[in-house]
Each structure stands twice: as C-alpha cells, then as structure tokens.
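To: structure subgroup
Subject: Chain for Friday's discussion

All,

I'm putting the inputs and outputs inline so they're searchable in the archive.
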Amino acid sequence: MKTVNRVLHCIDEESDTLFELCGIDINAISPGTTRLVSPKELMSRVHGLSKGEQAALIRVAARIDLLADPIGQQVLQDLSLDYSGNPHDNAVCLLASNEKSFRKAEEIRYVEHNRGRQRM
C-alpha cells in the first residue's frame, strides 16, 4: 500500500482515472469526485475496499510509479509521449489513453533500468 499512498499523494488531476483503470466505482471511494478528498482521507477509504480491489489498485499504482521515475520519464520523452504535468499524471494519462504505448514504455524502461545496473 506504500506505492498506492505515494501515487495518490503525487497525482494532481488524475486520481479519478486511477480508480477507473482499476475498475473501482468512484462513488465507493468518494461521492462525486476524489479531488474533493484529501489524500490521507482517500487512503483511509481505500483500506475499506475489497481485497480484490485493493490488489488491482496496488498493481496499477506500481506500474504507474515505475514510469514516474526519471528513467520512465525519459522513455516517455524519447517516445514523444511527453505530457505536461507531473510524472505520475503523465503515466496515468498514458495508461488511460493508450495501454499499448504504456506497455512499450514499461518494456523500454525495464531494459534501460537493468542496463544501467549491469554497468555498475
């Protein structure tokens, strides 16, 4: 849940989209929109979700968090997928708009990350 917490604190505008990507009804978290709720209150409501919904949220948040690091953002920029906003918002927007490009960016990021570690 640390990753979910980090992503929820870092996302500016796309928290509704994050829950939609997980197949979680936004009204189960917050009536109307999650933008009206503080990240701390939002996390307390996330703990009330079912185990399956929490697992889906953790998986999606982990994928987003990886592409939000400097290597992931460089990959997005190299693929000409540079969005305005913060890195977590960029990753959420890409996942929501084009999952195929998101997977490609994940694969490239994985290779670049491991290439850098092997050189050490």
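Points worth raising on Friday:
The chain has eight helices and no strands.
Residues 2-119 form one domain.

D.
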